[in-house]
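As noted in the main text, all predictions were made from sequence alone. Below is one such record, for EamA domain-containing protein.
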Amino acid sequence: MRGTAPFSGACVNAVAGFATLGGFLFLTTLYLQNVRSLNALHAGLWLLPMAVMTFLCAPLSGHLAAARPAWWVIAGCGAAVLVVGWFTASGRTPPRSAPDAVTSAAPVAPVSSS
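Prediction:
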């Protein structure tokens, strides 16, 4: 099984993902301590919500991946990342109700006051 292409690809993907996460945590800790002037304890507390969500979502993602086809899980996670990234990049906050999400999903150009 170790010689198959899907298994090798999954291993490379897992190593790349964990390396990316480790780099993100390292650079975020440096930012919080050097730019925001937080001490080590407070920088760790700022990163605690991500650790808690990782802890809670890990078993859920395992059950989800076992119960659904792989493309369904990848498409769902990709769509969630896309939506969160769009809201973050646009500076908008997600709406509180589903009908608002449908009506406010279209990007709006800024209006100049000249």
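The two ends are 66 Å apart (CA to CA). The CA atoms of residues 65 and 74 lie 9 Å apart. These features were considered when defining construct boundaries for the mutagenesis experiments described in Section 2.9.
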